């Protein structure tokens, strides 16, 4: 069959090259927030205009940043460098992953060449960002939240039996805790979260913990939560309790968890998927 269209991630810019070689439309897909896309697209202009004080118009010659700088992007509400991590990281000479931000800026620059850009978002959530991108010449079409196409019924990919555990809890009684799959929680913060949960005495919780961070769980936490691990194994000190008000697991079907009647709150790193999945089911986010 003849190829009639190429769809690729915005960050896979060569998808556009392939489409042009084939003489067909290129549809780029953006998985994160449209506001983030608008910021990345405007970042080179902001830097060249020295709109972020301290950049001196050149990322290679950064001075002392003014984090209180108010940045204006047509279509968006005013943003402070301090309040928006992308602006901060992109202009912070000490940021360890600066090359990642630079790569993103270069990659999203190609999105203006796409015939259409689809985004995992909606007008209701980011109407201002749609306008901001249109002002940049981006033919943006929000098609999300995409996770609404995922069934929240019985999940065969629930090896730790998280949903059956939630079924036994009272409505809106469980705090769900998960911090994504990329950046690990620093050891000191991890321990403080555990001790805070321990001190509450009466809050039920479901905490998704990476296997490599299980050793950070304080020993006194053993009588508070039990483990359900897809990876196998458990720490010995968690096996002696009787009635546990918490469950620690290395995997949870998040869409199903957030849509469960027992979950009343979500402690999260605020990744875009997590935000969409919680907002659409009305679970408060911390």
Tell me what the structure shows:
- Strands 9-10-8-7-11 form a 5-stranded parallel beta sheet. A 4-stranded parallel beta sheet has the order 1-2-5-6.
- The radius of gyration is 22 Å and the shape is globular.
- Strand 3 (70-71) and strand 4 form a beta hairpin.
- It has helices at residues 14-22, 34-48, 85-90, 98-108, 123-135, 162-167, 187-200, 254-258, 272-279, and strands at 6-9, 26-30, 70-71, 79-80, 116-119, 140-142, 174-178, 204-208, 225-228, 246-249, 263-268.
- The model is unreliable at 57-63 and 229-243 (pLDDT under 50).
- The protein has 2 domains: 30-144, Glycogen Phosphorylase B (Rossmann fold, 3-Layer(aba) Sandwich), CATH 3.40.50.2000; 149-279, Rossmann fold (3-Layer(aba) Sandwich).
- The longest helix is centred in the N-terminal third of the chain and has 15 residues, at 34-48.
- It contains 9 helices and 11 strands.
